[in-house]
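User: My collaborator sent over this chain with a note saying "see what the structure looks like." That's all I know about it. Can you take a look?
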Amino acid sequence: MTDKNEIHFRKAESNDIDTIWEIIQQSIERRRKDGSDQWQNGYPNLQTIESDVSKGFGHVLTVNNDVAVYVALIFNDEPAYSSIDGEWLTTGEFVVVHRVAVSEKFAGQGLAKKLFDYIEDFTKSQNVASVKVDTNYDNIAMLKILESKGYTYCGEVVLAGGVRKAFEKVLI
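Assistant: Without extra context I'll predict from the sequence alone. Here is the result:
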């Protein structure tokens, strides 16, 4: 990727759904090839993405107007996070990061890391203090991203039928 690329972060729109679903399917296959259990049980599915977009949770990172990365950002609402085996850093408002998926066309270009910069800027612009995120214990790529971006391991949560490592980063 060159510096001439225009990168934008925006809410996903209904006309993005087909592209987002294709990216999700690529990510499901990538997780399977990596030997991960994550996303191998029919979740997320097309209805999940349609719901994200209709509720305003879905966001995309575009490169030269091509959807490159998808993420769902949800304010203060993840029931699984209320019972953590461990302890969150904060008890106030937060943004939950779910369903990060990078298009195969843009894989390996550092866009997931860049996505977290946009998420953090967006979260601060909403005067929300922290970002919470979970991932599968075997999602090495995401674990490395969270470490590199300064997220703190807080414990484990049970989500989508599995135990997930939970992280938080205090922004303000």
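A starting point for your reply to your collaborator: The two ends are 31 Å apart (CA to CA).
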